[in-house]
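FAQ: What does the model actually see?

It sees only this:
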Amino acid sequence: MTAKRKQKTLTAGRTYYKQFNEEIRDLVRDGVTDFVIKECNGQRYLATALDGDLSFDIYGVPGQDLGAFMRGPKVRVHNNAQDGVGNTMDNGRIIIEGLAGDVIGYAMRGGEIFIKGDVGYRVGIHMKAYLEHQPKIVVGGKAGDFLGEYMAGGIILLLGMFSDKPDAPIAGRSLGTGMHGGVIYVRGTVPEDQLGPGLTANPVDSDDLKVIEGLVNEYAKELKLDSKAILSENFVKIRPFSHRPYGNLYVPC
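And it is asked to produce this:
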């Protein structure tokens, strides 16, 4: 028998973020499962460390570390988001219908982050696969420098389609620097001078395409986009050349 869900609408406004998060946690303990947050005005740590089948619809702009250490909830932001979305998250899904800032998905170990627009610097750094979990980030726009830096696992899919920077390259400098696990897929091409040391961008194979198609279908469904249009272009794959890319700097190979 499916448990009955309980909804609550909150207005963030000028409420101090600690007080607002305490109110949310009290309501979760009282059995509230579905939250609608209106007039969000930079409140930090929303949904941080929450566990289980919860949902958040956020109107306005949440502050830093949205969904950090999260395990299970689904969060939708009907606007932009600041830095640190999904910091070290274990599971769940975060959908950003606008732009997002820097350090998205830092060290995340599971779940998905779907962003429609552009993102800032150091997105997906230190991502890692954890047990059966495979973290995934899809960016519909373009990315700043150091995308996937020191990445150890998981998937980043960079589309470059929904950007307000038409003249910018699809990613900034040093894409994948220090990468030693996981994979970065890019729609179209990546200039060689944008890649981190020793990395190359190669055409995807049939197995990669199955992964990309599955991820694009989920992404397009959440953001009401045309998956066929997204998949109409070729993709390239960026993988690490070694699981210890800088090992010889410390111990001669």
